[in-house]
């Protein structure tokens, strides 16, 4: 982003606030995507996924579910890469803004009791849903 170089304090603070808001949006999308998957994939006994013969899957076509999930995934991954580009500018204020925004977003949007049971990040950068 060649033209994104604020030359005074007010535009710089505006950029930082924009990054905080964008990072919160990123976490909101991640939460909505996980909630969508949980809502549309009923669990069978012992934590297995019940796909064949499931009433919920019959209600909506599998293509509709996959399309919606893919859209949420694409939007989530796009925001993630855009935030990564901001962090890669090596600007400490931008870095702190992204980290603060992701922390705030995680606090506000990953607020369901079952969110605490899932493994949000396993090892490095791998989003998984744990089965207890």
Structural write-up:
With 132 residues, the protein is mainly α. Helix content is 65%, strand content 0%. It has helices at 9-40, 55-59, 62-87, 92-109, 113-117. Helix 1 (9-40) runs antiparallel to helix 3. The protein is elongated, with a radius of gyration of 18 Å. It starts with 8 loop residues before the first helix and ends in a 15-residue tail after the last helix.
Topology (elements, then pairings):
Elements: H1 9-40, H2 55-59, H3 62-87, H4 92-109, H5 113-117
Structural key phrases:
132 residues, mainly alpha, 0% strand, elongated
In brief:
By secondary structure, the chain is an all-alpha fold.
N-to-C series of helices and strands: HHHHH
Which outline best applies?
elongated
Structural class: mainly alpha
User: What integer is the average pLDDT?
Assistant: 79
């Amino acid at each position: 982003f060649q033209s994104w170089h604020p030359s005074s304090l007010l535009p710089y603070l505006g950029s930082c606030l924009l990054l905080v808001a964008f990072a919160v949006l990123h976490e909101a999308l991640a939460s909505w995507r996980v909630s969508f998957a949980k809502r549309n994939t009923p669990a069978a006994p012992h934590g297995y996924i019940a796909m064949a013969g499931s009433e919920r899957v019959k209600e909506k076509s599998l293509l509709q579910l996959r399309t919606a999930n893919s859209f949420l995934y694409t939007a989530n991954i796009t925001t993630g890469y855009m935030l990564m580009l901001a962090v890669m500018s090596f600007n400490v204020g931008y870095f702190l803004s992204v980290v603060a925004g992701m922390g705030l977003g995680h606090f506000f949007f990953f607020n369901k009791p079952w969110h605490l049971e899932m493994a949000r990040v396993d090892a490095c950068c791998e989003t998984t849903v744990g089965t207890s």
